[in-house]
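Narrative of activities, Objective 1.

The group set out to show that a structural description can be obtained from nothing but a protein's sequence at a throughput compatible with the screening campaign. Below is one input-output pair from the validation batch, recorded exactly as produced.
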Amino acid sequence: MFVAASTLCWPDLELQAAIELLQDLDFTAVEIAVQESIGPAKPSEILVDEDRAIQLLRYTHRMDISGYRLELASTGDEHYEQFHMMCRIAKATKVVNISVPSAEKGTPFNEEVEHLKKLVAIAEGEGVRLSVRCMLGCLSEDPDTLLVLCNNIDGLGISLDPSVALIASAENPAVAKAMAVGKGFDQLLKFVTNVQLRDTSKDKFQVSVGQGEIDYGKIVTQLEREKYNRALTVDMVPMEDHDHRVELRKLRRLLESLI
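Output recorded for this entry:
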């Protein structure tokens, strides 16, 4: 295992500025977000020129790229074409992992399975591993649904977010029951290709490091049991009345002390 940080830790900065700040904080690996909704690396802007995108994303000041966090606003054939381009870019920049959001809650399950199967087939054709991100308000917030998705789609991984499980457990009795008996979370570990981390309380998605209920030691132990050897990704946004550099440094040091 190794510690990485998301460029979304600095969502309002230009990509290179965010990478430089993370390097100054002694991170050695970075997850680059390519998202339409937030951050400077927007698919509609960088996926118009594949060669330029490769050059832009490759310039990481010698930091390893642990993965790409992708969110496309496009639909239909254009969506799959853009995803295929991103997979080619990942291959060219020697990145194995791409994570994508799942569909919103209420989306027909079979429709989501077919969509993710297409993405997995495209990714595997370029030597890339696709994972679906745990996200509130999406099908992927429920560990049981995630498990069924992975069991139905060969090659699909999970970008695990313990904060999502904690918040969803507080709001959804079915998720709370699954988490309480260990069903779902433990069974999901063998599919995990990335882990997104911050501290979280039951009523607040992000709090100061040490003030929440995320048990980092337990998470690392569970992952070690599955011989997980990929990134623990610090994924924190700035908070009012807190020094963001201090928060990022605290979590990096904490995670490094556990691995």
